[in-house]
Design goal:
The chain has 75 residues and is mainly β. The chain is 5% helix and 43% strand. It is built from one helix and seven strands; from the N terminus they run βββαββββ. The termini are far apart.
């Protein structure tokens, strides 16, 4: 898996709606969270893909839609 619980990540800012990314369909409500920074609070390994839950987000994100954030830049 790309990330582990406790890692700080951001949702990619270049999300396109209405398409599949690593088994997850990206829809309008997810797009509104572009750039969101949070800590991973849940992780699921599904073979080729990892899915992650971020604190403050109601969605499970594919690893391809997340970027690692340095701990000291979280603000």
């Amino acid at each position: 898996m790309r990330f582990k619980i406790g890692d700080v990540v951001s949702v990619r800012s270049d999300i396109d709606m209405f398409r599949w990314v690593d088994g997850v369909y990206i829809f309008k409500a997810m797009r509104r969270q572009r750039g969101k920074i949070g800590r991973i609070i849940g992780a699921v390994d599904e073979g080729d893909y990892g899915f992650y839950k971020i604190d403050g987000s109601g969605f499970w994100w594919p690893g391809a839609m997340l970027n690692e954030v340095e701990e000291n830049t979280r603000g």
